[in-house]
Prior knowledge:
Blueprint: H1 3-27, H2 38-59, H3 66-84, H4 90-115, H5 118-139, H6 141-153, H7 155-167, E1 171-176, E2 182-184, E3 202-210, H8 217-228, E4 244-251, E5 261-263, E6 266-274, H9 280-286, H10 296-308
Parallel strand pairs: 1-3, 3-4, 4-6
Antiparallel strand pairs: 1-2, 5-6
Amino acid sequence: MTFAEEWRRIAARIHGFRAACELFASFQSARQGDSNGQAKSLREQSGKLIGLIDLFGQTHVDQLPPSSLETLRAFVLRAKPFAAEKVSTSDSVLEALKAAALLVVAFESELTFLLNDEQQVLRRLSERAFVHLQRQIVADEEVRAKWKKALVAGEVACERFGSVHLLSHGLFPFKIDGLGARTDLMIPDKSIGAEVAGFAEGLVLTEWKVAKPDTQAEAKFHEAKKQADLYAIGALAGLELSECRYLVVVSEKAVKVPPDLREERWIYRHINIAVDPDTPSITSKKRNGRASELPSAELSSATLLNTCE
Length: 309
């Protein structure tokens, strides 16, 4: 389950908790207190929700956007004492419930907003574009032949084909030159103009490398990382996918892909595009049966191959 799917489930539970608190408040008499224990039960639920949110953050620490992760950690630090505080009197139970409920409900609204902002839309578009590319190579012989030729031709050819593909998903890709400046892959004069905003959803930083032979893949991922590190956000930051950078290695067969790397505010995504991927059974043997370690785009291609066999 992705972090977005899991968060929707948690958010639904919080919405139910909020509705229960509102129903309780509508029945509550000023002099009734917590005679029937409803406030105590709701407070216990708030504690479980806080624990669930904490576990969610720990489980998806490598996938959550930095801004969302920072907000989540701040919430847990503030909310845990309310859930752990021992209270005895009816009034103190009610006050503890109010404090915990307000924190949980307010946090749900904030995190949902952060996970659905423009940056996350660009992130989903980027992930979809790479999965689509790998699936095209598997399913379409003409596309596969084109990418095989690009692999032989070298890095520039792969960059050009990859850039056109990303643009079809509304993403304007750019790379970095030796001075840390943006270099346009699409326009001959290597300039990125304001007109990009008129036809693209946003810009995404990509560093494309070619592994020939496939054993060069690890070194090529490292080389792409060093190149991406040169970049500092410029004047068009409002259009950019600012929290995620894509390091793409094109190879003949599927190669081992490093896990995502988080450094300060950045997430470095490692993507492998295999131009002549093996069938799932052969790929599994190469990886000693660890098919679950395949990156998202590669796993999708393996799944598609399995349906075509």
